[in-house]
Amino acid sequence: MAKFAKLSFKKDELNKELSGFFKGIMENGAVDAVLAPMAQGKKGNRLTLVTSAANIGQIDPFAPIAAVSGAKIASSLTSRPSGRKVAMVLRPCEIRAVVELVKLKQVNLDDVVMIGMDCLGRYENTDFAKFQEQGGTSESFLENAQAGKTAMADCDIIGACKICEFPTADNVDMRLCVIGADEGSVFVEAVTNKGEEALGKSGLKAGGVPAGRGEAVKKLVATRTEARDKKFAEFRAETNTFEALSDKLSACINCYNCRVACPVCYCKECVFITDTFRHTGEQFMMWADKDGMLKMPNDTLFYHLTRITHMSLFCVGCGQCTSACPNDIDLMPLFRTSADKTQARFNYQAGRSVDEEQPMAGFKSDELVEVTGQVK
Amino acid sequence: MSEFEPKIVAFFCNWCTFTAADLAGTSRLSYPPNIKIIRVMCSGMVDPKYVLKAFLNGADGVLIGGCWPGDCHYINGNLKARRRVALVTELLKQYGIGEERFWLRWIAASEGNMLKEVADEMTAKLKQLGPSPLQNKGQMAV
Ligand code: SF4
Ligand code: SF4
Ligand code: FES
Questions:
Q1: Relative to the CA of A294, which of A165, A286, B6, B138 has its CA 20 to 30 Å away?
Q2: Is residue B139 assigned to a domain?
Q3: The dihedral sign for the CA sequence A351, A356, A357, A359
């Protein structure tokens, strides 16, 4: 049974209350460290690894920004483990990517207490700066976002968040629940034994339930799912030829930032930066000869399509690709629409469960007979 | 106007389909010259990149020939190939390259006549479908 503890906070004291909780779990030995979004001076917010409880005060997990996917940070921190226990506060999309990376042996959760926060969306990195300049705080964001008001003068939360049907996290030890919670309250939920142990040591008293949560989450998921389906239909209708796809990518300069930012682009070394793609002048000339011309850098579509064959089964729709593109190409719908098809083909859902085998990691002799249509 | 002759890039497993093509030849079974054969050691080594590159370079069809399930010389390369074909098909479909242009077939070393049938059938199908939508690459940056 999940256990909840209610954290009440006075105006402008959300983070103070949260830091009390995290201080508790550190000082009482539930964990040795905390990885959580923290304010950086007066501006900005980044995941920060805290090993001294005295420094937890800047914690600000609900700030609407995720400049770098936390799944990548979780990988840096645990793929060669430290042996020290760490509580990680991540967003649902980051945790779904973590689930995929666990299966790829790029994240190790042995010493991790995973804490999933309810997510109402994030701004682009640069828009978050505007948000702060206009006096926005996590509290004001949560309040407005729950009422569906996320837009600022000239920007809004990113497109990926608007169509994300996973505002709450699964596969976690604990959750920080804000959706549907009354004003001035956050609930800490213990989901697993590990979570209960941490909650026990935090000094918070268990009790209370976020009564409105289930209904509020359901409503949000319905809105987002509807928006997702609409976005998918639009994208598919306007991008149904290679020509249209090539137009969509016309600003691409092959910088490969999109794959650097993608939490589930798992290759240690991308083939597109290996010798396989370091061609001789003679080779380029030969290709140019074939049609009489060659766009350079070449292989733009080839790169994107190859990337899709690698990551689409694991795409969690986090939107980091769109955020990373220096040429403002909205890549998320391209990758998410493909992911939707490839995942459906294998009855797979990225981030659903650590126990589900990744589709390209297994195979059976009596499956997919429709591919060849032949029976002996 | 001369009839459209589709270009079909064929990745044939050395142990089965390639041998079947050889057998078809020695048995004087003729199959269309549209099939351009690339010999690979197993259907399981056909990286999706090879398929994408073939289409991006204007192939009208791609045919992968492998050993029947249970007969792969590397135990299960052909089963991996089948999953990859399903994956790549889902991707290409959206942009106009459907499964009619991308075939995987099991053809054993002794099945020279089946090789001929598949080659005939695929060539006829592609003639009917016409050139790949990627043929107009001249105006399109790939
Ligand atoms: S492809 Fe884009 S949306 Fe999908 S997981 Fe990678 S960065 Fe996130
Ligand atoms: S980040 Fe943008 S410009 Fe760079 S490779 Fe990706 S799509 Fe192209
Ligand atoms: S050896 Fe023929 S398909 Fe693997």
A1: B6
A2: no
A3: negative
- The torsion region of residue A6 among left (phi > 0), alpha (psi -120 to 50) and beta comes to beta
Closest residue to atom 3 of ligand 1, CA basis: A317
> pLDDT class for A154, splitting at 50, 70, 90?
confident
- Beta carbon of A137 within 6 Å of any ligand 2 atom: no
Residue with CA at minimum distance from ligand 1 atom 8: A318
Spatial distance between the Cα atoms of A153 and A50, rounded to a whole number of angstroms: 35
The beta strands (E) that lie in chain A are given as 3-8, 33-39, 45-50, 86-90, 112-117, 174-177, 185-190
Residue B114 belongs to some domain of the structure:
yes
Q: Is residue B1 part of a domain?
A: no
Q: pTM for the complete prediction?
A: 0.95
Question: Does B48 reach chain A within 8 Å, measured CB to CB?
Answer: yes
CATH number of the domain enclosing B13: 3.40.50
For atom 7 of ligand 2, which residue has the closest CA? A252
pLDDT at A207: 84
A160 Cα nearest atom in ligand 1: 3
- pLDDT, residue A225, reads 98
Q: Is the pLDDT of residue A294 over 80?
A: yes
Burial group, residue A173, by CB count within 10 angstroms (0-12, 13-18, 19+):
buried
Measure the CA dihedral B13/B19/B20/B22, to 10°: 130
Residue B26: domain span: 8-129
The residue in chain B having the minimum alpha-carbon distance to the alpha carbon of residue A373 is B105
Question: Is residue B104 classed as helix, strand or coil in its secondary structure?
Answer: strand
The tens digit of pLDDT for each residue in A322-343 reads 999 999 999 999 999 999 999 9
Q: At residue A144, what is the residue type?
A: N
Could you check whether the bond before residue A61 is cis, i.e. omega within 30 degrees of 0?
no
Mean pLDDT, chain A, integer: 95
pLDDT in tens, A82-100: 999 999 999 999 999 999 9
The nearest alpha carbon in chain A to B105 belongs to: A372
Q: Is residue B34 part of a domain?
A: yes
Domain edges within chain A: 3-208, 226-345
| pLDDT value at residue B136 | 62
User: Does residue B66 have a pLDDT over 90?
Assistant: yes
105-124 of B, contacting A, C-beta below 8 A = 105-106
Tokens of A341: 């098809």
Please tell me the total count of domains within chain B.
1
CB of B19 shorter than 6 A to ligand 3: no
